[in-house]
Amino acid sequence: MYGFVSMRLSGFSLLAALAFPVMGTAAEITVFAAASTRDVLAEAAEIYSESSGDEIRIAPAGSSVLARQIAQGAPADVFVSANPEWMDWLEERDAVDPETRAALFGNRLVLIAHGAGAAGSAELAPGVDIASRLGPEDRLAVALTDAVPAGIYARAALESLGEWEALAPRLAEADNVRAALALVALGEAPLGIVYATDAAAEMRVRVAGTFPEDSHPPIRYVGAVTTAAAEPEAAAAFLRWLGGPQAPDIIARHGFAPLPE
Questions:
Q1: Keywords of this protein's UniProt record, alphabetized (predicted)?
Q2: Would the pTM count as exceeding 0.85?
Q3: Which residues make up each annotated binding site for molybdate?
Q4: N or C: which end of the chain has fewer CB within 10 A?
C-alpha cells in the first residue's frame, strides 16, 4: 500500500556485526518520507544498511498524505517531512517524539519547462508573466496547493510575485511534487513548479527560472521518530546518522542545500 523502496544488505560480515554489538539482531526501519526525498534517502539508506546491518525501507509520498497515515496508525518508524507544519501537526497528536525531531536540509523552488535544454538561472522577479507562457488550454503543474508542502510553497511564491490570481484557475494539481514533475516530463503540462532537486533528477525537463527565497517560507526538511516505532532506538540512530557528519556528501550530491549554522 505504501510503495516501499527497500534497501537491504543481503548479509553482513562478522566484523560489521561486532561493530554494532548494542543493536543485536538487525532492525527493520520504515521511513515515511516526502516524495522529493525519495532518491537521496534511498542512497542514504543503502549506505547506512551496509554499515549497520539494519534494513531501511523508504515509503515516499506527499508529506500531508504520510502525516495523515501516521496519525491513523500506519506502521512508520521515522517521518521525514518537506516542511515543519506537518511535523507540528503530528506532534500535537502525540504521533512523533519531539525529543528526536531534527532539521535535516533545505531546497529551492523552481519553474520548470518540458524538454531538454539549457537551464535558466535567473530569479523570477515581481511582474514576471508566467501565465503568458501558457497556451489557451495549457495548465501549470503543481502539487496540491492547500496540503502538500511543494504546493503550499508554490502558492506563496505566486502570491508574492503577483501571479496567483491569474494562474489559480489554470493549475493542474497533483498529489505530490514528483507527480507534478511527471506531468511536465511527459508533456502533459508545459510548465510546472517543483523543487530544484526534482528538476535535477529528470532529464525531460529544464529549469526556466528560480523563485526568490524570500517569496515563500524557507524550505526545510525535518525528521522525527514516531511514537509507534517498533524499534525506536534503531530508528533514532538512523535519524541521527542522517543529520550527522556522514550524510552531507550524499545530501549535496542530490542537490539539497545545507541548513544555516
A1: Metal-binding, Molybdenum, Signal
A2: no
A3: 36, 63, 150, 177, 195
A4: C
